[in-house]
Specification:
Shape: globular
Strand order of the largest sheet: 2-1-3-4-5
Structural class: alpha/beta
Helix content: 25-40%
Strand content: 15-25%
Largest sheet: 5 strands, parallel
CATH class of the largest domain: Alpha Beta
Order of helices and strands: EHEHEHEHEHHEHEEHEH
CATH architecture of the largest domain: 3-Layer(aba) Sandwich
Number of domains: 2
Distance between the termini: 34 Å
Number of strands: 9
Number of helices: 9
Length: 270
């Protein structure tokens, strides 16, 4: 029976990982969490396997995933797995997700963390292209092993990651509380041409184009898709970060990101 894979992505890493697993495993359907969140009612997937792929936020799960879990019924699913995508540490996010699932009548049977390129501009931006290629190549090797484990329905959960749990405890609650006003940090400069890509790649419909400029609506997930994917690099967080390298997973065309975030067709985007 088909494996259903629910994903959330900002600049393409989680989508690239999902597509890699789908290619390896075959009978898999990729579902967008942002699109599913727009539909009313309880979601009951007709499948024997369900997976989640998501980026790590301060050693925790993205807010949208914690809001999604109560809206999907998984008590009938025998094998549930998760892949956390991180630029460094973050395995505690898998244990957090397991706790959320248990509160809603299910649990993780397996969870893995995969290191990929970090898109977090405040920490200095993406590394150089040579380093990016190495990270993405290594990630594919890890994902190939994960695909084999999913195929065999192996039960593999990380041990208790002390450092990741400590970082989660110190920073994650404050990060989540900040999201209602965190987008006040964004600025747009005069190089903006009003193309609207920032609005179309936003997974939370948080950007409106008003007078040919983006205006943030204060329900940001801080995925940083807008700043990383702006073709003019016109969106800034702070002046000192202006020249930091942006990131977009090279295997995911922009039009795919727009489709996975909003369901919009964008055949003209490359």
């Amino acid at each position: 029976m088909t494996t259903t894979l629910y994903i959330f992505t900002g600049t393409g890493n989680s989508l690239a990982a999902a597509e890699f697993l789908a290619q390896k495993l075959g009978d898999m359907v990729i579902e967008s969490i942002p699109i599913r969140m727009k539909k009313a009612g309880l979601l009951i997937p007709d499948t024997n396997k369900v997976g989640f792929i998501f980026p790590v936020n301060y050693s925790g799960v993205p807010l949208i995933l914690s809001e999604f879990i109560p809206r999907v019924s998984l008590s009938h699913v025998p094998y549930i797995f998760a892949v956390a995508i991180s630029g460094g540490i973050g395995r505690y996010a898998l244990l957090q997700l397991d706790r959320m699932l248990k509160e809603n009548g299910s649990s993780l049977q397996a969870g893995w963390m995969v290191r990929m390129v970090d898109n977090y501009i405040p920490y200095g931006g993406a590394p150089d292209e040579k380093t990016q290629k190495k990270l993405l190549s290594d990630a594919e090797s890890v994902l190939a092993d994960i695909a084999n484990s999913i195929q065999a329905e192996k039960k593999e959960m990380p041990g208790f990651p002390v450092l990741s749990q400590l970082l989660h405890s110190l920073f994650y609650p404050r990060f989540i509380r900040s999201l209602s006003e965190i987008d006040t940090r964004f600025r747009v400069d005069d190089t903006c041409n009003g193309c609207g890509i920032c609005s179309r790649v936003c997974p939370s419909d948080n950007i409106r184009i008003i007078d040919n400029k983006p205006v943030w609506q204060h329900h940001c997930l801080f995925c940083l898709a807008c700043i990383n994917l702006c073709p003019k690099e016109a969106i800034q967080l702070e002046e000192k970060l202006r020249n930091k390298r942006r990131y977009h997973n090279p295997s995911v065309p922009l039009k795919k990101l727009i489709q996975i975030q909003s369901g919009m067709d964008s055949s003209s985007d490359q």
